[in-house]
């Protein structure tokens, strides 16, 4: 009976030893596997009576918080004007303003002109008063007469050409209407030329006069020169 009881106690002691070992292993594993939390360490530090609890101050983050994933509002950009910075004034351009090119003075071509008039007999009177006529290149006394008559719509009759040019009638007034020596003559600057109207070339500033006469003006002028 004593041997049976002794064996039973030995078995019970072994069981208790095994249970105790397993409890120590579990307690050791949990304590060595996880480090003590900061809250536990802080609590352990302040567990001493009379000491103030000092919580760590979080350092400010230098990176601006990004907008939340659900927000659609774009990040607001910093404007220099909102920050109070002065608006920069644009400086004037350093390049010189181009000056307009000076147009060359317009030189009007010199217009060469003469004065022409047509005078009839006592009945016709002045047919064309003295007027300025533009002188063309190589203009002759008969050529200017034709152009002036056309301008004033006057009838005229001229025969021959060159040195043989002869004016028979102007505006319905013909040679011999006032006698055997009557007819049309011309003067240039007050002088009756000794060449025909078709070959006499005019110069700028000349005064050409066509007139009707009842006498031989050339003979009369010769008499006056001799006397």
Automatic annotation (TrEMBL):
Superkingdom of origin organism: Bacteria
Location of the region described as Disordered in the Swiss-Prot/TrEMBL record: 24-109
Compositional bias annotation for Low complexity: 24-47, 60-72
Pfam families with a match to the protein in the record: DUF4430
Domain Transcobalamin-like C-terminal: 138-213
Compositionally biased residues, Pro residues: 87-99
Protein name: Uncharacterized protein DUF4430
Classification of source organism: Bacteria, Bacillati, Bacillota, Bacilli, Bacillales
């Amino acid at each position: 009976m004593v041997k049976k009881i002794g064996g039973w106690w030995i078995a019970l002691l072994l069981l208790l030893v095994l249970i105790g070992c397993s409890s120590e292993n579990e307690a050791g594993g949990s304590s060595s596997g996880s480090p003590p939390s900061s809250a536990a360490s802080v609590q352990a530090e302040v567990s001493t009576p009379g000491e103030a609890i000092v919580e760590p101050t979080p350092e400010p983050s230098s990176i601006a918080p990004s907008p939340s994933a659900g927000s659609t509002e774009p990040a607001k950009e910093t404007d220099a004007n909102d920050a109070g910075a002065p608006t920069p004034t644009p400086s004037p351009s350093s390049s010189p303003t181009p000056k307009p090119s000076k147009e060359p003075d317009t030189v009007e071509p010199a217009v060469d002109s003469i004065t022409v008039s047509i005078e009839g007999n006592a009945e016709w009177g002045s047919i064309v008063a003295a007027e300025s006529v533009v002188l063309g290149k190589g203009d002759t006394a008969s050529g200017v007469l034709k152009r002036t008559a056309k301008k004033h719509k006057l009838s005229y009759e001229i025969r021959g050409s060159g040195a043989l040019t002869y004016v028979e009638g102007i505006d319905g007034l013909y040679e011999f209407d006032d006698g055997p020596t009557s007819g049309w003559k011309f003067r240039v600057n007050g002088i009756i030329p000794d060449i025909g109207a078709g070959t006499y070339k005019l110069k700028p500033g000349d005064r050409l006069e066509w007139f009707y006469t009842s006498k031989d003006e050339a003979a009369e002028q010769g008499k006056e020169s001799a006397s």
